[in-house]
Specification:
CATH class: Mainly Beta
Number of domains: 1
Number of helices: 2
Strand order of the largest sheet: 3-6-7-5-4
Oligomer: single chain
Largest sheet: 5 strands, mixed
Structural class: mainly beta
Helix content: 10-25%
Number of strands: 11
Length: 157
């Protein structure tokens, strides 16, 4: 019996210093870039809050989160609105700043391998991989959601 390899429809989100690999179902929408409302006492990687479909969504700069230098937002920038994994009705979405339009891809065991030379990227990154020979980070959305929750709590104080 032939068994077809498991493929996951995925999306690559281009950031300044690399790209993020997420399952396509984790992205609700890719929205046009808009300025965020800054939060006092928030970390650099939390750019602030944006309005999306009558909700306030935290906007994350992944480059800054992983310790890369801050870059200017380009004219092709977009915001990937992602579902949070906890199902928290108070904060069901988060936004990730991208530098251009994300693109769809298929991920499978044959196409994805652990990067033999991963960078030290700390919290927020589950794994660095090669997909079709290109480096990508798999974000740890659970950890990111906890980090955002802590940062929002600090900003509210």
């Amino acid at each position: 019996m032939n068994q077809t390899p498991l493929e996951v429809r995925s999306v690559l989100l281009p950031v300044h210093n690399g790209q993020l690999l997420l399952p396509n179902v984790s992205v609700a929408e890719v929205a046009a870039y808009r300025e965020s409302i800054e939060l006092p006492n928030s970390p650099d990687w939390l750019l602030g809050m944006i309005s999306w479909r009558w909700k306030k969504i935290p906007l994350v700069c992944f480059d800054t989160l992983v310790g890369m230098p801050v870059q200017k937002t380009g004219v092709r920038a977009r915001i990937a609105i992602c579902y949070t994994l906890s199902g928290d009705s108070k904060q069901p979405f988060l936004g990730i700043l991208t530098q251009s339009v994300p693109h769809l891809t298929r991920a499978s065991e044959a196409l994805i391998v652990s990067d033999p030379e991963p960078a030290e990227l700390g919290e927020g990154v589950m794994q660095q991989v090669l997909i079709n020979g290109e480096k990508a980070w798999i974000p740890d959305l659970d950890a990111l959601e906890v980090m955002i929750g802590s940062a929002l709590a600090e900003a509210a104080e």
